[in-house]
Amino acid sequence: MKALLVIDVQNGIVRFGDFQKELSTMENVIKDFKANAMPVIFMRHLDDAEDSPLYKKSVGSELHSSLKEYADYVIEKQTPSSFFNTRLPDKLEELGIKHLFITGFNTEFCCMFTAITAIDRGFRVTFIEDATGTVNTGETYEMKDLDIKDFVGTVLHWSNVIEVLDYEEYLECYNLKK
User: Fold this and answer.
1) Is domain 2-174 annotated with CATH 3.40.50.850?
2) Which of 14, 32, 105, 154 is the 20 to 30 A CA-CA neighbour of 67?
3) Cα 10 versus chain centre, distance
4) The whole model's pTM is what?
5) How far apart are the first and last CA of the chain?
6) Calpha distance 134→60 (Å, rounded)
7) With b meaning 16 or more CB within 10 Å and e meaning fewer, what string describes 94-103?
8) Which residues form a coiled coil (predicted)?
9) Among 99, 52, 94, 48, residue whose Cα is nearest residue 73
10) DSSP code for 63
């Protein structure tokens, strides 16, 4: 069985950029899963630090209004990995999930960490590169022309264990409405 993880699509992240394209792509994938009664699991990152944009008692920590209505399950986390000290492993076992599709924020942190951890736990993983986004830029990492999503996608693809697709490739391979 397949499930979609929508990672950290929260007000405190979305407000940092123009993510309309990424949110629209995520929504299209979500609708595909929903139309086929496949689980859509939202991860919600919560920080204890009051100055964090994802402070647990702030509006910033809430799921973004554009997608939150689609959540079948919401699981809270406090680290980049959606698996570390969360209810996710139990929920996936309960649902009989063997194949995870990864979307959300931030590409190079929570999405990547979750994808790698999922492989380590025996799941098949599909990372939908253009259904992820990041608030960071190449300048953040002192690599002016770095395309973070493309770089992460390439590294994960080269692992030969994580399938990396863009949305159009996803439609060709997995569109569940076929």
Assistant:
1) yes
2) 154
3) 11
4) 0.92
5) 17
6) 16
7) ebebeebbbb
8) none
9) 94
10) B
Calpha distance 72→68 (Å, rounded) = 9
Can you say whether the dihedral through the CA atoms of 159, 120, 172, 129 is positive or negative?
A: negative
Residue for token digits 């736990």? Answer: 121
Helix, strand or coil, per DSSP, at residue 106:
coil
User: Long-range contacts for 171-177 (Cβ within 8 Å, ≥24 apart)?
Assistant: 174/32, 174/101, 174/126, 175/32, 176/32, 176/33, 176/35, 176/36, 176/38, 177/32, 177/35, 177/36
